[in-house]
Fold:
Amino acid sequence: MKIAKEFTWEMGHRLTFHKGKCKNLHGHSYKCMVELTGEPDKNGMVLDYYDVKKIIEPLIDEMDHSFMVFSSDKELMHALQTLNSRYVVVDFETTAENICLYLLDKIKSAKLPENVSALKVKVFETENTYAEEETCI
Ligand SMILES: [Zn+2]
Structure:
């Protein structure tokens, strides 16, 4: 059985390696779909949606109305500090693929119950583009 919950957040970023428009500071209304696979417990739940929210919402809150900055992008980090603006430092280029892996890793390391056997994360950068990865728990 699979259950899923959707989360949304607004976030700025730029791709430092990009030769086109994506090297500029810009933002997206990101969406992620978190899917959990497992056997339902005796009450008929894979995991209470409330608990799904409790695990994932702090990660979303950290990114919401924030800038995601690649740690090697010192110029941008300095600018955000000067502006006293929120940012999240990560050690990767902030592509949808890397954000997907970042969330997958964070959620995987949260305490998921034993009946949950697989986790899938889809990160939508726009309405019609997404990156997806899954892992066993
Ligand atoms: Zn972008």
User: Anything to note?
Assistant: The two ends are 15 Å apart (CA to CA). The CA atoms of residues 40 and 47 lie 8 Å apart.
